[in-house]
Amino acid sequence: MGILDGFSALFSSWQPAFFAILGTLIGLVGGAIPGLSSGAMIALLIPVTYYLDPLAALALIYTVSKSSDFGGSIPAILFNTPGTPQASATQIEGFPMTQQGKQGKALKMAVIASAQGDLFSELLLIFGAATLAVYAAELGPPEFVAIYFCAFVIIGGLLGKSVIIGFLSVILGLALSLVGTDPITADDRFIFGVNELLDGIALVPVLLGVFVLAEVFSKAADKAYDIMDQPIAGKSDDPTDSYVTFAEYCRVLPTMLRSTGIGAAIGMLPGVGSAVACFVAYSEAKRKSKTPETWGKGEIEGIAAAESANNATSGANLIPLLTLGIPGSTAAALLSGVMLIHGVEIGPNIFTTSYDIIYGVFAAGLLCIATYFVVGYWGSGYVGALVGRIPANMVYPIIFVTCYVAVYATRQATFDMVIMTIFGLIGFLMKRLDMSLPAFVIAFILGPGLERSMRQTFLLDEAGGWIFLERPVALGFFALGAFAFFMRLRQRSE
Fold it and tell me: Smallest Cα–Cα separation from 300: which of 474, 116, 111?
């Protein structure tokens, strides 16, 4: 009865359902603006969540992340400019179809594949996460230390141009998470006489600085203000080129199902991301195609593969967050930040401590899928036309000003504005050094949890570390982390 209870919670007042739909529309339009990543959109909206109840806040953030995955395909198809990194695979086949006057067919195929992949992923989350959480709830501090180790190894190894740079991103995030007061001894740590840091570095300024302000600085440095430079092509005279026929749907259905499975499987792995899932699914579909020579020239099956995998990661990447407390993606990390702000416990106990809230979020996800399918199927072209009219030189100045207004409105603290600026510069330098911002943020958020688990572990075992040898699950996660590290080094050497 969980999901029915979730819909009951979602519609118990006007706020949760309203913000779920609003988040869907924001994500759809925002995802269609190249350069405005879903992470940036979510970070900008986090200050708003302070004024909402927990379910409405989480519904807003979750639906923005889901619909932006599809929204990024709109400019990829219409303008040859992906709105999000994962839409690059859609662009390969989508824009050639637009050049042929088949943009209507391409957009409708994208939204059908996105909704189908997303629905499967959401159902997997709804029925799978709670089951896994039952087993995860039996784990103790030693197991969670091993899980954190495994997650950091995977995230550090995969997110970044090199293994070393990836791990440096993780270490920097962990180090900054220690700033503040020691939770046991109450001693000051790394505050350097700044009393405002006694409670640690506030999360919202960090997120806004790293994901939004750093992007504005990068665009200013590169003088990259142009959003789109491709006009929308004329439409084909053939009426069947404006929609997906039943025969075409049946032809690509096996590809969509296979790509959905690929996306869901990859989505459950921390740090891998939807962009990887899209290209893996696209490559696999092309490999299995009987006419690979048509690919790259406007093959509708390629759009189906990329978009199915893209959105199939959406729900799946929340599974490690809700079962183990480990965010598997940037969106999941930001969602976990909102949970922390609203006092929602992250991890397997969430299904008992916040039952109505979490199933309400699941219901919001299903409402989101239905909403962006309807709007996307009949309105994608209008969204593209709207985005194409946005004055390019106005986007980032508005975002810059909005950052400072938003961060001040959160706690009315000018010090938060200083922190955001500092982390904006840190994020800018990290981008220039090809360091991983998602790995940094995930480590920053998980740092206190790792410290707590390590201290609890050593209280259980005064001999120091031998307890891990007595815990098969902990040894398994340590072994998995070591294996992932070895494979990453092997891949780099090749």
Answer: 111
The residues spanned by each domain of the chain are: 2-493
Question: How sure is the predictor about 400, in pLDDT bands with cuts at 50, 70 and 90?
Answer: confident
Note the pLDDT tens digit of each residue in 63-103. Answer: 998 998 888 888 888 887 777 777 888 888 888 898 888 88
Residue 174's identity, in one-letter code, is L
Nearest-angstrom CA–CA distance, 269 and 436: 17
Q: How many helices (H) and strands (E) does the chain have?
A: 22, 2
End-to-end CA distance of the chain: 50
Q: Is 37 left (phi over 0), alpha (psi -120 to 50) or beta?
A: beta
Reported in sequence order, the residue ranges of 173-323 that DSSP labels E, i.e. its strands, are 180-181, 188-189
pLDDT band at residue 112 using 50, 70 and 90 as cut-offs: very high
CA neighbor of 299 nearest in space, from 95, 104, 101, 70: 95
Beta bridge partners of 403: none
Q: DSSP secondary structure string, 162-217?
A: SHHHHHHHHHHHHHHHT-EE-TTT--EES-TT-GGGTT---HHHHHHIIIIIHHHH
Q: Higher pLDDT residue, 391 or 118?
A: 118
335, 58 contact by CB (below 8 A):
yes
Tell me the pLDDT tens digit for each residue of 180-202.
Answer: 888 777 788 888 888 888 888 88
Q: Which amino acid is at 486?
A: F
| DSSP letters for 479-491 | HHHHHHHHHHHHH
Give residues with Cβ within 8 angstroms of 305, minimum separation 6.
89, 113, 255, 256, 258, 259, 281, 282, 284, 285, 286
User: Could you give the CA distance from residue 447 to residue 176 in angstroms, rounded to a whole number?
Assistant: 9
Helix axes 274-288, 300-316, angle to 10 degrees: 140
Output the CA angle 399-405-411, nearest 5 degrees. 135
335 vs 241: which has the higher pLDDT: 335
DSSP letter string over 331-343? HHHHHHHHHHHTT
